[in-house]
Design goal:
heterotrimer, A: alpha+beta, 18 helices, 19 strands, 36% helix, globular, B: MetI-like fold, elongated
Chain lengths: 586, 271, 321
């Protein structure tokens, strides 16, 4: 295979892994002699410029292999290799710069420090650090499981696991939950954790003046009572199959009455890391909490570096400024990392159903034929190739493909522009019409919007693109429903319930589906629930409520020696409690 | 010293881009908005002189069509600035006294605002789009023209031909229109050329941050923004739109300077 | 009136107009933000927010109540040095601004230093070699400097200096506590980008001011005294030409503090421009108001100082307008 060939090629030129080595050498020898430096520096610089040959060699590989496999994939890979050769140069050059400047306090931390900490890149800065008072995913991406814990938690596989509650029992009718709390748990400020904190946290979250964005999670609760210091009983108004899962979400973490008011800027939880400092606009630092009740994390410090610009994120990874970018925002650059053995590129799943949402409440989109026409007009595969640079999974309904209850419904509405045109003609819109396509800021929406506009234009639906900021999108599209089409990723896990909601922004009002969803919520038998969930997926696919485009990919890029980061994103979190550095040679 | 080479180069470049923009109305090598997925990210070749972008769109066609967007946004924005600023300045000069003082304070306030940040704010209020980019750029052009018009008008008010007109019983408004305006026309045009070049830069900047013309309307600034992450694997997507901006602005600057020298021989020595 | 008295009274008048400008600016900015669509509470609570939680948050943020009252509360606080508390960060706006100024301020100064260090000598050389090939070369270079869009130049610089040559970091800011040198190094490329058009402007202004001065009476006198052309230039023309250059430099500083929005994004620097850009998109209105007011304050203060400096130098300006 050509790709392995060129990897060997990269190996041969010894491009791989030079930077960390160089860095260590520099630290050991920095004190020795300035003259040694200058000679070493010069020869290293000479070597740095050698990879021009690498590019030539790579081209050779391409030319030879290209005869069998011409085409895009190969040229992309080749470009990626050249790119990574360049980037590797950057890393080496930076190391050399450190080499030259280390007596002058260059930023590079010593290797001992390096092993004890991890620097994680995140695309958005959290507005504050209180997961119970804001919906921003960026909050959970820093504090979930690291700083704050709930009674239950969501594991890397998306399953509910015990956390602050070491066990629980559920009554046969599914209405009474009894939780047994762990012992020896303390908050970071030294106050102890007990049943009172649980009662306080949930009462606060469901109070009328609560600012919890997911107050709905607590709505089924009838009452919460403390049975003992370490036992809590929760009664529900009606059975809720999602209750334990919801208790494991960031919005349901346990906070202490003493610190609840100031968690936004100084979060105090029970997790294995405690908040250390926050340089706004730049980074947030967590440090190991020595009195943690569970297993102590292997790393002493976790730093979350905010990098909103994808090219800046790539540069920071290659320069070694950050160790990992668990949710890399720019698939177009990922190929370059795949070609570089210093990095692990981990493709995982998310809960992000990316859809072309259709305003079902507006003419002509209230007509099923029109909605189906939209869906037949879009080639999901080409969309994924151009917008996602090949990353992403096509979906045919609003459900995550990795979920055990998923059914593949992409065949319900395949790419068929002729059929789309016929359906539009049937609906009396053969002459075409104009629709407003509102796009929020993320790259998938803006780029996807251009693709969708071109695809719909080809069947006679002229799209007028309106780019919006999130604040405008929330008001105009989400709250006021003043739109025809929009592209957005629904990132909440198990959120098919939005199709049963009153007055939700795509205005799907279907009594059959609502009844179906009520049965799902009430279902206590797993087999029955699974069957109903599949039926629900089919129902919205057949009604073509929205055009279901793709399941957003989770592309994690990190240092190949860094272990223990989650591959998938069952919830939006960067759990660093299990992260460690493998003992590599370099 | 003769400045005519600058004027010639400037006029040539400006004419070139104007023709490019006009030509793009009738013909571009490819449809600038048409996707060609299999042909994406191709390096410059005989078929695609400037290569293709991530959707397989022809970069040359987009640069041509982008000239149209940049030039029309800048022309309308500068026109708007002139339409507000020149009458404002003439009025302030004609009224004099406290009115003049207040008018200039008002323009001071607009000057004191950080222009780019206010433009971003304006588009946040009005929503993004070519029209709102025009308004945002136009608003910041207005005080420039107001000051220019006022300053030159004030000196003209002391001239004999204006005094003669006043003696003849003409009103201040009429004098402003009949005698002052024709005499400051050349200055306004020279300044307009300079503002035009700044307008092209501003349009590129606003489009770059996503506040300019909405896609699929081609725009140089947005081409640069979109190409930023792929610049390392497809440098042509970043180089050609950037060069287009540089050359277009350069041409307009040279033209403006050349015109100023041509109109005002006294200044020729200095600028 | 004594000279000092005249200057003081002039300064008093200018100060009054400064205060009025600020007040008017605060009203303009407040009104603009009131019309901006979007609700900071909705932004913070996200897609599945509970409507009652939204209401509660709005009340908590002080977004309820008539606009006039909210304006008076805000401006009253500002006068006491309290810019309010950021809606999203939940931290005092004044400390947010101070943190960011610690990046944007030095960045602007560094850019200005580069612009002055490059622009003035180039302008002087061009003036001295007026009409020669060097003059033509320098003037051509300044034309290009004016024409290059700064974000494009930034991308090119990162590509050349960070990726290919590896002489500078691609971005980021290690913080001043990491040491002065690494911090300055991370500001170097962005400062270079910001300095380019400013250096071009300064070179042009310097050149024309020097050429202007060459034709003046005092130069004739100086030459008549027997000074050589270059000596005359250095002793008399240069000093006089510095005055217009200083005005421009004053304007440039205030422009640079705010002008880095796009550049701060390219180099991911936590500066004032990025703070306000982010605050606008998140509808963190109170931060936007505070930052813009501070920026306006910087502009009018610098203008004020330049005017006063003028008045000290040039007595004609002290007369009432």
């Amino acid at each position: 295979m050509p790709s392995s060939k060129f990897k060997e090629c990269v190996d041969d030129t010894a491009l791989r892994g030079l930077r960390p080595g160089a860095r260590r050498i520099l630290e050991r020898r920095a004190k020795k002699s300035v003259r040694w430096f200058s000679s070493k520096f010069r020869s290293a610089v000479d070597r740095s410029f050698a990879p021009a040959d690498t590019v030539g060699a790579l081209r050779g590989v391409r030319d030879r292999a290209g005869q069998n496999r011409p085409g895009l994939e190969l040229t992309l890979t080749e470009r990626a290799a050249r790119f990574s050769a360049n980037w590797d140069l950057l890393g080496r050059a930076l190391a050399l710069l450190c080499l030259a400047l280390s007596p002058l306090a260059c930023g590079a931390p010593s290797s001992a420090q390096r092993r004890a900490e991890v620097v994680i890149g995140i695309p958005l800065e959290p507005p504050n650090l209180d997961p119970t008072a804001g919906a921003a995913a960026a909050i959970d991406e820093v504090v979930y499981a690291n700083v704050f814990e709930g009674l239950t938690r969501i594991g890397p596989d998306g399953a509910v696991a015990p956390a602050l509650a070491k066990s629980w029992s559920v009554s046969a009718d599914g209405l009474v939950y009894e939780f047994e709390l762990g012992a020896g748990v303390v908050f970071h400020d030294g106050t102890s954790f007990d049943a009172d904190d649980v009662v306080f946290s949930f009462e606060r979250a469901r109070a009328p003046d609560s600012t919890n964005a997911q107050r709905g999670y607590f709505e089924p609760i009838e009452s919460i009572e403390k049975l003992d210091v370490d036992r809590v009983r929760i009664r529900l108004k009606r059975p809720s199959s999602a209750f334990l899962f919801n208790l494991g979400q960031g919005d349901a973490v346990i906070v202490a009455p003493e610190s609840a008011a100031t968690n936004a800027t100084n979060p105090v939880g029970t997790g294995p890391f405690r908040f250390a400092k926050w340089r706004r606009g730049d980074q947030i630092e967590l440090e190991r909490f020595d009195r943690y009740w569970g297993e102590a994390p292997k790393i002493a410090r976790a730093i979350f570096q905010i990098l909103s610009d994808p090219s800046a994120a790539a540069a920071a990874l290659l320069a070694g400024d950050i160790d990992a970018f668990p949710n890399f925002p720019a698939p177009e650059i990922v190929a370059a990392f795949e070609a570089n053995q210093r990095f692990a590129v981990v493709k995982g799943t998310t809960e992000g159903e990316t859809i072309l949402a259709v305003n079902n409440g507006r003419k002509p989109f209230d007509d099923l034929r029109v909605r189906r026409a939209l869906c037949h007009a879009i080639d999901r595969r080409a969309l994924i190739d151009t917008v996602g640079f090949g990353y992403g999974t096509p979906i045919g309904s609003h459900f995550a493909p990795h979920n055990p209850d998923y059914v593949d419904l992409t065949h319900v509405c395949p790419y068929d522009p002729a059929r789309a045109r016929a359906l539009l003609a049937e609906a009396g819109l053969g002459g075409g019409f104009t629709a407003k396509l509102m796009l929020p800021p993320p790259g998938y929406a803006r780029r996807g919007g251009e693709f969708v506009a071109a695809a719909l234009g080809a069947v006679g639906v002229k799209c007028e693109i309106v780019n919006l900021e999130w604040a405008q999108w929330l008001k105009q599209v989400f709250a006021d429903k003043d739109y025809d089409l929009t592209i957005v990723s629904h990132t909440e896990p198990m959120d098919i319930d939005i199709y049963a909601r009153d007055d939700y922004y795509f205005q799907y009002r279907d009594e059959v589906f609502r009844a179906l969803y009520a049965r799902i919520v009430a279902a206590t038998d797993p087999a029955e629930r699974s069957r109903l969930l599949k039926e629900a997926q089919r129902k919205i696919a057949e009604d073509a409520v929205n055009v279901f485009l793709l399941e957003a990919p989770k592309i994690g890029v990190w240092n190949a020696r860094l272990k223990g980061l989650w591959a998938n994103s069952p919830i939006q979190a960067n759990d660093v409690t299990g992260v460690y550095w493998s003992q590599g040679d370099d | 010293m003769s400045r005519s080479p600058g004027l010639l180069v400037g006029a040539g470049l400006t004419l070139f881009f104007a023709l490019l923009a006009l030509a793009s109305l009738l013909w571009t090598p490819f449809d600038p908005t048409a996707f060609d997925v299999p042909a994406r990210l191709q390096a410059p070749s005989a078929a695609h002189w400037f290569g293709t972008d991530h959707f397989g769109r022809d970069v040359l066609s987009n640069v041509m069509a982008g000239a149209r967007t940049s030039i029309s946004v800048a022309i309308v924005a500068v026109g708007l600035g002139m339409a507000i600023g020149v009458p404002f300045g003439l009025f302030a000069a004609a009224a004099g006294g406290a009115v003049d003082e207040w008018a200039m304070r008002a323009s001071d306030i607009v000057f004191a605002f950080p222009a780019l940040i206010l433009a971003i704010l304006l588009t946040a209020v009005l929503g993004p789009g070519a029209l709102n980019a025009v308004i945002a750029i136009g608003v910041f052009n207005a005080p420039v023209f107001a000051r220019l018009a006022r300053g030159s008008a004030l000196s003209l008010w002391r001239r004999e031909f204006v005094l003669a007109a006043r003696v003849a019983g003409k009103g201040r408004a009429r004098i402003s229109v009949e005698h002052i305006l024709p005499n400051i026309g050349d200055l306004v045009i020279v300044q307009g050329t300079i503002q035009f070049s700044l307008g092209v830069l501003a349009e590129a900047g606003l489009s770059y941050v996503g506040l300019g013309a909405a896609p699929p309307t081609p725009s140089w600034g947005r081409m640069l923004a979109e190409s930023q992450t792929i610049a390392a694997i497809a440098p042509w997507t970043a180089i050609f739109p950037g060069l287009a901006i540089v050359l277009c602005v350069l041409g307009l600057n040279l033209l403006g300077d050349g015109l100023r020298d041509a109109f005002d021989p006294k200044l020729r020595a200095r600028r | 009136m004594t000279r000092a008295g005249a200057i003081a009274s002039y300064a008093g008048r200018r100060f009054l107009s400064l205060a009025l400008t600020l007040l008017a600016a605060s009203v303009v900015i407040f009104v603009l933000l009131q019309i901006a669509p979007g609700d900071p509470a909705a932004y913070m609570m996200g897609l599945n927010a509970d409507p009652r939680a939204l209401e509660a948050l709005r009340a908590e943020l002080g977004l309820a109540g008539p606009p006039v009252e909210r304006y008076l509360n805000w401006i009253g606080g500002v006068l006491r040095g309290d810019f309010g508390v950021s809606y999203t960060y939940r931290a005092p706006v004044s400390s947010l601004i101070a943190e960011r100024l610690a990046v944007s301020g030095p960045l602007a100064l560094l850019a200005l230093a580069l612009a002055v260090g490059v622009g003035l000598p180039l302008g002087a050389v061009a003036a001295a070699r007026r009409g020669g090939p060097l003059d033509a070369l320098i003037m051509a270079a300044t034309q290009i400097g004016l024409a290059v869009p700064n974000f494009w130049f930034a991308i090119l610089l990162v590509f050349v200096f960070s990726i290919v040559l590896g002489w500078a970091s691609a971005g980021g800011f290690p913080g001043w506590d990491a040491g002065v040198l690494p911090a300055l190094r991370s500001l170097l490329l962005p400062a270079l980008v910001l300095a380019l058009p400013q250096a071009a402007i300064l070179a042009r202004v310097m050149r024309s001011a020097l050429i202007d001065a060459q034709g003046r009476q005092y130069m004739l006198t100086a030459r008549a005294k027997g000074l050589s052309e270059s000596e005359a230039l250095r002793r008399h023309a240069f000093r006089n030409a510095l005055i217009p250059a200083l005005t421009i430099i004053g304007l440039q500083f205030s422009f640079l503090v705010a002008g880095g929005v796009i550049i701060e994004n390219v180099f991911y620097l936590p500066g004032l421009g990025r703070l306000v850009f982010q605050a606008i998109t998140q509808r963190d209105l109170i931060v936007v108001q505070g930052v813009v007011l501070v920026l306006v304050l910087i502009v009018v203060t610098v203008n004020f100082l330049v005017d006063i400096a003028y008045a000290v130098v040039d007595p004609r300006l002290r007369r009432p307008a």
